[in-house]
Design goal:
Layout: H1 2-13, H2 25-31, H3 34-42, H4 45-58, H5 63-87, H6 91-96, H7 100-132, H8 138-155, H9 158-185, H10 203-211, H11 222-229, H12 237-266, H13 277-290, H14 292-333, H15 347-357, H16 359-363, H17 370-381, H18 383-394, H19 408-434
Helix pairs in contact: 3-9, 3-11, 3-12, 3-14, 4-10, 4-12, 5-10, 5-11, 5-12, 5-18, 7-8, 7-14, 7-15, 7-17, 8-14, 8-15, 9-12, 9-14, 13-14, 14-15, 17-19, 18-19
Protein name: Mn2+ and Fe2+ transporters of the NRAMP family
Keywords: Membrane, Transmembrane, Transmembrane helix
Transmembrane segments: 31-55, 61-85, 106-132, 138-155, 167-188, 203-226, 247-267, 296-328, 349-366, 372-395, 407-426
């Protein structure tokens, strides 16, 4: 009987996957998926805007900041993936061990995130689509963009999401990186320097590029996408690291490409990029130089980037909400339900999916939903340092075997991330309150 209990415990701590993790470089490439989803989800309008502003205002001087920002997201995502595979617990289960205050905060943040993000990203998608199809109706494109995300996630499963995101990343690569290559072959006379520097007046801009506070909750979806992929147990940690590293290399290339395009087209011209409309303006300038087909191609790439930021959160944050509901139900029943039971078919998953799609449509008809945006800004500004502190605690705890805990370098880097985001978050709070 005791032997049966031991065997059962081992199976629960490291469930069977039905396959073995790949060892060779070539086979690992075929398994890439969850990392590509979380990285592509993060390369939305926000990152594109910040990279465009950096290129337009400072040429290539801040390329290092783009790369550092990708490295920070890689550090945090790897920690989230390592926690899940080494401990067998989802991100939320680990986060809950910090206390109910942490769970309550994440719950409130998730609810507000659904409303504000659910309105903002379809609106950006509509902005790009109206530029692609002049004369079309903005609010109709916004509604259709949200509905498309809802339908794809409601009727699809993780495998479909993975394939759709791979196609969108491919479109982004061909159009955005291709546009940068065209620019490089037609480079102007501007004097660019790749040497890391901090141009006068660029400090706050650098923090914005590195930080990317908006939408950072999507990083926490990584453990759920690993779970959906079927990676379970410590043996998958090397594959997870390969997956997430490859993904952020790809997305760093996208961000660098946008910086190159903006630098060549706008640096030194006196033109600036501000707001989501700046993305369309950048494509217009590109079209003036290389023709309408080039403009159209770049806009398609920008739209693909924005739509990944619809599909990813519509699926991933719904998983977090379903896990939150499961955790609360377990607390009330005084039981522990396996996270294996979470799926896209859960009622709570679909309730949040609907929450993120339909109520936000009302915000499209309001000029300035200040209260909701302010609340989202306040909660979002303090999320990243809390996430970093949480990972510092979890990945140095006894819940993770010594071999998979943080090393000194990881701990130092996470502390630096905390300090960076505390500074950046303070600035976001001031902007939210004053704005």
């Amino acid at each position: 009987m005791e032997r049966v209990d031991v065997l059962k415990s081992q199976l629960e701590s490291e469930p069977a996957t039905g396959n073995e993790p790949p060892k060779s470089f070539g086979r690992r490439l075929k398994f890439i998926g969850p990392g590509l989803i979380v990285a592509a989800t993060g390369v939305g309008a926000g990152d594109f805007i910040m990279a465009s502003i950096a290129g337009a205002d400072y040429g290539w001087a801040l390329m290092w900041a783009v790369l550092v920002g990708a490295a920070i997201k890689l550090l945090l995502s790897e920690g989230i993936g390592r926690w899940y595979l080494a401990s067998g617990q989802t991100f939320l289960q680990g986060w809950h061990s910090l206390g109910w205050w942490a769970t309550g905060y994440l719950g409130i943040y998730t609810v507000i995130f659904g409303i504000v993000y659910g309105a903002a990203v379809p609106a950006v998608s509509a902005l790009v689509l109206t530029a692609l199809f002049p004369g079309s109706i903005f609010w109709l494109w916004a509604v259709l963009s949200g509905l498309a995300g809802f339908i794809f996630v409601w009727f699809g499963r993780f495998g479909f999401l993975e394939k759709a995101m791979t196609v969108l990343v491919g479109v982004m690569f061909v159009t955005v990186v291709g546009s940068a290559i065209v620019i490089m072959f037609n480079i102007g006379q501007s004097d660019y320097s790749l040497a890391p520097s901090v141009p006068e007046g660029s400090f706050i801009r650098i923090l914005g590029i590195i930080g990317g506070v908006g939408g950072t909750i999507t990083l926490t979806c990584y453990s759920y996408w690993i779970h959906a992929k079927g990676w379970k147990g410590k043996k998958w940690i090397p594959m997870m690291r390969f997956d997430i590293t490859s993904a952020y290399i790809i997305t760093a290339i996208f961000a660098v490409s946008i910086l190159i395009i903006a630098a060549e087209l706008l640096f030194g011209t006196g033109q600036t990029i501000e707001g989501n409309e700046g993305l369309v303006g950048l494509a217009d300038t590109y079209g003036e130089r290389f023709g309408d087909p080039a403009r159209w191609a770049l806009l398609v790439g920008i739209w693909a980037a924005v739509f990944t930021s619809i599909l990813g959160p519509w699926h991933g944050i719904s998983y977090i909400f379903a896990d939150l509901v499961r955790l609360i139900q377990d607390h009330r029943r005084k039981t522990v339900t396996s996270h294996e039971s979470i799926s896209e078919k859960d009622t709570s998953f679909r309730i949040y999916l609907a929450w993120m799609t339909f109520p936000p449509m009302l915000l499209l008809f309001l000029e300035r939903p200040l209260l909701m945006v302010l609340a989202y800004g306040v909660l979002g500004a303090i999320f990243m340092p809390l996430l970093s502190i949480g990972l510092l605690y979890l990945l140095n705890s006894k819940k993770v075997e010594p071999a998979y805990r943080n090393g000194k370098i990881n701990n130092v880097l996470l502390v630096l991330v905390v300090l960076l985001f505390l500074f950046l978050g303070g600035g976001e709070l001031v902007d939210a309150i004053s704005g």
